[in-house]
Amino acid sequence: MTDLLALTAELVDIPSVSHDEAAIAGFVESELGRQGFLEVTRLADNVVARTALGRTLRVVLAGHLDTVPPAGNGRARLEGDRCYGVGSVDMKGGVAVLLALARELVEPVYDLTYVLYACEEVERRYSGLAAVDKARPDLLEGDVALVLEPTASVVEAGCQGVMRLVVTTRGAAAHVARPWMGENAIHRLGAVLVRASEFSDRRPVIDGCEYHESLQTVWAEGGSRARANVVPDRATALLSHRFAPDRDAEQALEAISALLGPALDSAAGDSIEVEEVDAPAPPSLGHPLFAALVAASGAAPRAKLGWTDVSHFAGKGLPATNFGPGDPGLCHHADEHVSRGELETAFSVLRAALGRL
Amino acid sequence: MTDLLALTAELVDIPSVSHDEAAIAGFVESELGRQGFLEVTRLADNVVARTALGRTLRVVLAGHLDTVPPAGNGRARLEGDRCYGVGSVDMKGGVAVLLALARELVEPVYDLTYVLYACEEVERRYSGLAAVDKARPDLLEGDVALVLEPTASVVEAGCQGVMRLVVTTRGAAAHVARPWMGENAIHRLGAVLVRASEFSDRRPVIDGCEYHESLQTVWAEGGSRARANVVPDRATALLSHRFAPDRDAEQALEAISALLGPALDSAAGDSIEVEEVDAPAPPSLGHPLFAALVAASGAAPRAKLGWTDVSHFAGKGLPATNFGPGDPGLCHHADEHVSRGELETAFSVLRAALGRL
Question: Could you tell me the pTM of the whole model?
Fold first, then answer.
């Protein structure tokens, strides 16, 4: 029986900030290669391992190998039955569970595909999962997908969409001693930021799952530190909007435009541009495997608030959901951690739902 | 008689963005060196030329050699009797007048000191004038100072103070899908920017001159473009405050703190820090030379709104004022320009006030 906490710590101790996953991909490739019944394929820093048992249905199990940059927590630290460290909960704990399943599910009910990939924590254009799908779409074929992002071993159904918007305000440059000759683009952006902070968080319920939308400004910039005598003529903010799966991207953009519009003046050259959209995924709770997983978990399913790669699988036509070990509220926190109990619960539920008992 | 427009164009065609004034300093040094009655001293990219006629009073005439970076206007362009180009009005026109005075005022009423210096358009710590004063304070000794910044040949008395303030707001990082676990520092800065935009511009009248205060955010930054999943925990703005000479720095800071205070939470770690203060200078219109200059100009004196190096001379105990060619409202504009008439008027008034008629 795999020591899931020790394996998680071992994975945390292999640094794997996005774009730097070669070492951890090598580790995972070697681990999976030991199971003679798995066909292992490595593509760049992405690894796919598949059973070929001729089962009627194939389940894809997916997890990302990369982490956000460490915040003083670059090494694994064990405290009792907890493992701390960057990526511990997001999502090396899930990767550990996935590797343990690959070792132990020798005779599963379904054919299984394990996908471990790079660059989930950065812009979607770098996604390792998307890269595999582009190069070898056959490797990702299946009937249903599970993404092992942390969900505290509860079925977290579907995912919210992500829309990144660039808001630009324009002004007119002038000397700061005579600002009335110009117009301050940063001051105009201030009104946009205040309106963004007043976003009213919609919480629609779908398939019994309550989603929770959000709007956050993640980056803002205007003017120049070196030109402190100049009224700035341009300021920019990058906003991240999470929207529930009852809306499509167009509806989401309409809502944000209505919120920010009163602070913007298109005649002055202000603009809202959509930089990137990752579609939301519906809960798909009608699928029998998800019903079995809900039953094995012993908990009511709930909405996934973060965006995850279930969106990618949903886009390919595979019903997909999230299920993995650990508290999703700890993702990207400096004190993120995962416990032995959380790892073992996720493992047991997945083994029950996927394996021959 | 010097062709002031041609000389201005010649000076504009010598690029001299701050920190890159060697070529123009060389030109000026060579020009002044031709007048045998001047003692010329070069210190780095600063040039001082002095008469030694044993007059009772010495007048210091000062002008900076540097410009802000060009905005598509790096070369001189003559249109009729106007010269366009970066620095044309701020203040190569003034430098041209100063060089012409040095050529033609062979027998002035006062002893004269011409000071042409680098790095006026950047942070005060780089100031060429301050560097000369530190290395050779004797070169800047005198009884009264005139700074040839553009004033449309009107005595623009004293100058407003400049205070640069760094405002920092703090929040708490979290994943953008669960922003209620953190707090958005950029959204909190938005409220500061809106308050800054609501600055009520005080316009005190001193010695008959109406000043006009201002508060502008010249730079703002928060969060990270590369970490678009993270609620930002820090945002910063650089504000430039111009304050009238009836207030000292402490009073100015009190006023700004009172304005921005309601948007800041010191318990959360928010702060206002004074990064740099350049003192204001009083109008000093009681001085006889200034009275003569006002009379020769034929116009009522008015307040100088921008900060200029009259502040430096006032700090040394020299009554100082601004008087130079061109429209000060054009400073740092892409279409800045100066006309032959403006140059000749400034030259004539100064020659009348300083020279033996």
Answer: 0.77
Disruptive mutation site among B66, B194, B201 for chain A (greatest number of A CBs within 10 Å): B194
Residue position matching structure tokens 């000292």: B248
**Beta-sheet strands, E only, within chain A:** 39-43, 46-50, 58-64, 77-79, 82-84, 111-117, 144-147, 156-157, 161-170, 174-175, 205-206, 209-210, 214-223, 230-231, 234-243, 271-278, 302-303, 320-322, 337-339
Mean pLDDT of B310-319: 93
The alpha-carbon gap from A7 to the nearest alpha carbon of chain B, in Å, equals: 25
Per-residue confidence at B130, pLDDT binned at 50, 70, 90?
very high
Kindly tell me if the per-residue pLDDT of B8 is higher than 50.
Answer: yes
Please tell me which residue in B21, B31, B66, B336 is annotated as part of the active site: B66
- Are A333 and B217 in contact (CB < 8 Å)? no
Q: What is the pLDDT of residue A357?
A: 43
Average pLDDT of chain B is 95
Positive/negative CA dihedral, A193, A127, A311, A67: negative
User: Closest Cα of chain A to B23: distance in Å?
Assistant: 23
Asked if A288 and A113 count as a contact pair (C-beta separation under 8 A), the reply is no
B110: three-class secondary structure by DSSP: coil
Question: What whole-number distance in Å separates Cα of residue A305 and Cα of residue A245?
Answer: 10
Q: What's at A182, amino acid-wise? A: G
Contact B187 A219 (CB under 8 A): no
Residue B320 predicted with pLDDT over 90: yes
Asked if B238 lies within 8 A of A228 by C-beta distance, the reply is yes
Helix, strand, or coil (residue B82)? strand
Contact A187 B194 (CB under 8 A): yes
Percent of chain B with pLDDT over 70: 99
- Chain A's closest residue to B166, CA to CA, is A225
| Catalytic one of B45, B90, B111, B120 | B120
Structure ipTM over 0.85, yes or no: no
pLDDT digits (tens, 9 = 90+) for B260-285: 999 999 999 999 999 999 899 999 99
Instruction: Classify burial at A35, counting beta carbons within 10 Å of its beta carbon; exposed 0-12, middle 13-18, buried 19 or more.
Output: middle
Q: Is the dihedral of CA B94, B100, B103, B104 positive or negative?
A: negative
pLDDT digits 0-9 by tens, A220-272: 999 999 888 899 999 999 999 999 999 999 999 999 999 999 999 999 999 99
> A222, B223: Cβ pair inside 8 Å?
no
> Residue A158: pLDDT above 60?
yes
3-state secondary structure of A75: coil
Q: How far is CA A157 from CA A153, A190, A234, in A?
A: 12, 36, 41
Does the pLDDT of residue A356 top 80, yes or no?
Answer: no
The mean per-residue pLDDT over the stretch A113-127 comes to 94
Among residues B327, B258, B268, the alpha carbon closest in space to that of B91 is found at: B327
Determine contact, residues A49/A40, Cβ cutoff 8 Å: yes
Q: What is the pLDDT of residues B157-197, one digit of tens each?
A: 999 999 999 999 999 999 898 899 999 999 999 999 999 99
Query: What's the DSSP call for residue B89?
Result: I
Give the integer Cα–Cα distance in Å for A24 and A10: 10
Nearest partner of A220 among B110, B232, B178, judged by Cα: B232
| Signed CA dihedral, A143, A147, A153, A154: sign only | negative
CB distance B228–A123 less than 8 Å? yes
- Cα separation, A128 vs A63, in Å, equals 11
Omega of the bond leading into A91 within 30 degrees of 0 (cis): yes
**Residues of chain A contacting residue B222, judged by C-beta atoms under 8 Å apart:** 217, 219-221
From the list B164, B187, B188, the residue facing A228 with the nearest CB is B164
Q: Which of B216, B227, B229 sits opposite A231 (nearest CB)?
A: B216
**Nearest CB neighbour to B224, from listed A175, A188, A219:** A219
